Amino acid sequence: MRDRRSLMAGAFAAAAFGGRAAPVAALTKTDIVLPPAPIAGLTISPELYPTVVRVKRSFEPGSIHVISSQHFLYYIVRPQTAIRYGVAVGKSELVYRGEAVVGRKVEWPSWKPTPEMIERNPAAYEKYADGMPGGPKNPLGARALYLYHDGIDTAIRIHGTTEPNSIGHSVSNGCLRMVNDHVIDLYNRVELGAPVTVY
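Structure tokens predicted for L,D-transpeptidase:
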């Protein structure tokens, strides 16, 4: 059962960004260049491709907001304007919620499962206990934004993936997955220290 804070956050997010049933109106004219679409072999819903949308003026340009229940990430480009990307989020019991900042940015990051991941599923993760170098087969994909809270690494990443058709689902160990082409686009826009709120 969702707690009161989660319900309030969900209601706030729906009011601020619009829900699936009543999506935020897309801008018809813009100077913002988005990654090409569609992508061959990708079977995600069209609404999960990057699109420019209107948001409330109160959101700080340069900030990131993730609506976990809708599988959307919003990067605020300027007042009232955001790029909305589709994401995969954590399984129900592993959904990350809270405030953080982008503490690191890494191209083709290395990856090491957390002790908790190994404990939950040793058959899948124990063989990678010493880590895996970055590259096309690495589960973090092409780029990663490392989320920190009060100077401490949360172990949560916004990252690419080797499973792009998982976007739009709640399947991860807590991290926020994106299509590689989309996370590269976001990575190139986001600055270190950017505030991140995950609802």
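The CA atoms of residues 160 and 178 lie 5 Å apart.
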